[in-house]
Amino acid sequence: MRLALAQFAAAPAPQTFARFRDRIDSLAFEAKSAGADILVLPEYAAMVLAGAFITTPNLHAELASAVAQAGALITALQSIAAHRAIHILGGTIPMRDPDGKIRNRAPFCAPNGNIAFQDKQHMTRFESEQWGIAPGMGPRIFETSFGLVGVSICYDSEFPLHARAQAAAGAQVLLIPTCTDSAAGFNRVRLSARARALENQFFAAISPLVGDATWSHAIDRNTGYAALYAPPDRPFPDDGVIARGTLDEPALLIADAELSLITQTRRDGAVLNHRDWPPIAPCEIVHLS
Question: Which residue of 73, 143, 162, 285 has the fewest CB atoms within a 10 Å radius of its CB?
Fold first, then answer.
C-alpha cells in the first residue's frame, strides 16, 4: 500500500470553493502520479475552506461556514477520487447531524464512488469547551482492495483501546489525520502513533495541518510533519521510522506500507504484541494503610 501523506498548509486562505477544490485535486494528481493508493489529508482541512467565506477571524463563524460547506465538500472529494482513480481520506469535516449536534467526521472516499465515515470519539478541551463538538460513533475499519485500514483522528490516537479495536478487527494500517497548534500537542500525537504501531504491530501514518493562518481564529497556528511508523522490530528499522517529512513544510510525503511485512513481524517478531494483548481485568486495590 503506497500512501501519500499531506502536510497540508493552512494558508493562504482560498478565494473560492473552486480554488480549494482545485488544490485538493492537484494533490490527488500528484499522489496518483507517484503511484499512491491513498491520499491522506489532515484533521480540519475543511477549516481552511472557511477562509473563502469569512472576512475576519471569528471562531464560531468559521465553524458555521465549514458546517455549511460540508455537503459540497464531500461531493467534491468523491468526484476527485473518481476522476483521479485514488482513495482519499478527506481529513475531517465538521458535520451537523439530525440530533442537532456537530461531529468531527473523516470521509473515506473510494474511486468507485463509495464513501464511509469515521467520527472522532474523544474531543480535546478546545473542541468540547469552545466549539461544543460532540463525540461520534466508535472505531471502524475500512476494507479496500489493497488492505484493511483504520482511522484514528488526532486525539483519538492517544487512547490505546480505540486503535486496539481496529487492530483486533484486522486493520494493518492506521491513518491519523491531525491538527495541533503546539509542539507539545504534535508530540503527543507523534508518540501515540509510534506506541500504537508497537502495541498492535501495524503501520501508523500521520498527516498534519501545518503553518500559520492569520485570517483564522480556529486554525491560526499549526505544527507537525507527516510520518509513517512501523513496529520497532524485525524486519523493520530499529526505531520503527519508515518515512518522515520536514517540520511545518507544506509537502506530500510518499511512503510504502508493505503489508506482508506486518504479517511477518506478527508471526516472527522478537516480541508478539499483537498476539499477547491480555483481556482487560479489574485492577486489584492493595490497602497499605
Answer: 285
Summarised one tens digit per residue, pLDDT across range 6-54 is 999 999 999 999 999 999 999 999 999 999 999 999 999 999 999 999 9
Asked if 91 contacts 103 with a C-beta cutoff of 8 angstroms, the reply is no
Q: What angle do CA 242, 243, 247 make, to 5 degrees?
A: 145
Contacts of 159-165 with C-beta under 8 Å, sequence gap 24+, read 159/121, 159/122, 160/195, 160/196, 160/199, 162/121, 162/122, 163/139, 163/196, 163/199, 163/200, 163/204, 164/199, 164/200, 164/277, 165/138, 165/139
Select 2-276's CATH number: 3.40.50.10860, 3.60.110.10, 3.30.70.100, 3.10.310.10: 3.60.110.10
Q: Parse the chain into domains and list their residue ranges.
A: 2-276
In this prediction the pTM is 0.96
Cβ partners under 8 Å of residue 103, min gap 6: 94, 95, 97, 119, 120, 133, 134, 135, 136
Residue with cell 482519499: 88
* pLDDT tens digits for range 127-182: 999 999 999 999 999 999 999 999 999 999 999 999 999 999 999 999 999 999 99
